[in-house]
Amino acid sequence: MPAILSVRDLMFARPVHTSQGTIGLRRVWVLAVGDGSGLTGLGEAAPLPLFGGEKPKDCAAALAQAVDLLDDTFIATWLDRGRPDAPLGPLERVLAATPCARSAVEGALLDLLAKLHGVPLAELLSPQYSPWIPVNALISGNDQLAAADAAVRAGFRTVKVKLSPDHHLAAKQVTSLRTRVAKRIALRADANGAWTAEQALAFASEIGPDALEYLEQPLPAADLDRTAQLRRRAAVKIALDESARVPADVGRIGAAQAADVVVLKPMLFGGWRPIRQAVQLAKSCGLGIVLSSTLDGAIGRAHATHMAAALALDQQAHGLATGDLIVDDLTTEPLKMSGGDITIHARAGLGIGDLKDPPTL
């Protein structure tokens, strides 16, 4: 069979606490696609419904339909086109409402195409790719000061903290962290849409103008008008994540002047083609761009990292260094952070080693 789907549960070494809930386990779907010559491409679907992904059951159903369509003829025809931006033909209709499933299908085909050409995926996507991608550390929950110290020792130059839904407690979090790390690192803070405009303004007033690189998603995702007003009134830059789930959302954010930065999750956008469109829109609107994982496994993180490299997004730290959360990752050689960067190696495809417990194609 040219395409095989498997389900994996990723246990976290420590839970991630957000204002929308706590995440300690990720169920992901791994798609392996072969070309008949022994080469295999890998894709991952990691739905996260709380933050804009489809429901896991919908993701699984779409992937099951996609596997039936991914026969030898389809795969050979897609590979023969030799274009990383080639549409998925009849699969586009099957995957239209399930971006995480689309990410897995397109990702597996792209990994396979890069291996067929013998180049890193980033090079397949753009010959002028950036081989070093800066990344931020993610801290949440208890012992945040110790976690920030550990991040500095590990070489991170940027740290992102998940904030309490209580804006007064959140301000104390930021003030304590800024005092602890002084000016050694850039500090980002994420409210995950938990506040009202008044609470966000109070938070910004309490922390002062120089505490943060930016405040991410302070208000609910749909509230662009109030977010734009907040951006004009608060002495802190605003980043939006949950407000951007399709490329057109980026255009709406730019038109509303609701943000300084957009945080784009390739998994939730549907993979390479839509994320490239979103990045192009963001650049045309003068928005800063950060790519982020969805706390997914080694395959999903590697795809996002190669996209950041191909899009030459090496001026800001990206939210891609979440592999240390996972007790037992999906592949034998996941991409790793060193000195605050993730390096794209010269290995063909994703360059993350072999899939653990692989299915037989």
Characteristic terms for this protein:
361 residues, alpha/beta, Enolase-like, domain 1, TIM Barrel, 2 domains, seven-stranded parallel β-sheet, three-stranded antiparallel β-sheet, 13 helices, 13 strands
The structural domain count equals 2
The proportion of strand residues reads 15-25%
Q: Give the mean pLDDT.
A: 95
Q: State Rg.
A: 20 Å
CATH topology of the largest domain: TIM Barrel
Name the quaternary structure: single chain
* Silhouette: globular
Name of the top-level CATH class of the largest domain? Alpha Beta
How would you describe the overall organization of this protein?
There is one protein chain. The chain has 361 residues and is α/β, with parallel strands linked by helices. It has two domains: 3-118, Enolase-like, domain 1 (2-Layer Sandwich); 132-343, TIM Barrel (Alpha-Beta Barrel), CATH 3.20.20.120. 39% of the residues lie in helices and 20% in strands. The protein contains 13 helices and 13 strands. A seven-stranded parallel β-sheet has the order 5-6-7-8-9-10-11. Strands 1-2-3 form a three-stranded antiparallel β-sheet. Helix 8 (197-207) links the parallel strand 7 (186-190) and strand 8 (214-216). The longest helix is centred in the N-terminal third of the chain and has 19 residues, at 99-117. It is globular and about 60 Å long. The chain starts with a strand and ends in an 18-residue tail after the last strand. The mean pLDDT is 95.
